[in-house]
Write a structure and sequence with these properties.
The chain is α+β, with helices and mostly antiparallel strands. Helices cover 40% and strands 30% of the residues. The chain has a four-stranded antiparallel beta sheet with strand order 1-2-3-4, covered by helices on one side.
Length: 131
């Protein structure tokens, strides 16, 4: 007759191995979810970076030209990288008559009510040239 006796060898039981594999699987799935969210956010950050460049370019362009813009709203589109972005400039007066405030809003043309970037700058009235 054959009798079974426990073996005192070091090792893991099948239940211990299954529990360990379950823990590893859950940890890997959590890591995969975080990576997927990061990938989604990279596209949005890419667009916001381009929007920041468009706003900065608009303000720098006015300063470089020495523009004295009339009070009001202007809008247009600008291509930055492979992204088409819309911009809207609101020019307003300031308490000092020698300055104008310019607010630049940059947005995706499909969603003009959702501004990606809002930049503020000031324009200085060019001095009058004397003959």
């Amino acid at each position: 007759m054959v009798t079974w006796r426990p073996i005192d060898s070091p090792g893991f039981t099948l239940v211990e191995v299954l529990v360990a594999m379950t823990i590893v699987a859950v940890a890997l799935l959590a890591g995969l979810r975080v990576a997927a969210q990061g990938t989604r956010h990279v596209g949005e950050l890419h667009t916001r970076l381009f929007a920041t460049w468009v706003a900065s370019d608009r303000l720098a362009e006015h300063r470089a030209r020495g523009d004295w813009l009339p009070v009001g709203v202007r809008s247009g589109t600008r291509r930055q990288g492979e992204v088409e972005l819309g911009w809207r400039e609101q020019v307003s007066v300031t308490p000092n008559a020698a300055f104008r405030r310019i607010d630049v809003y940059v947005f995706v043309p499909a969603q003009p009510e959702h501004s990606l970037v809002h930049a503020v700058g000031f324009l200085v009235h060019p001095p009058q040239r004397r003959p």
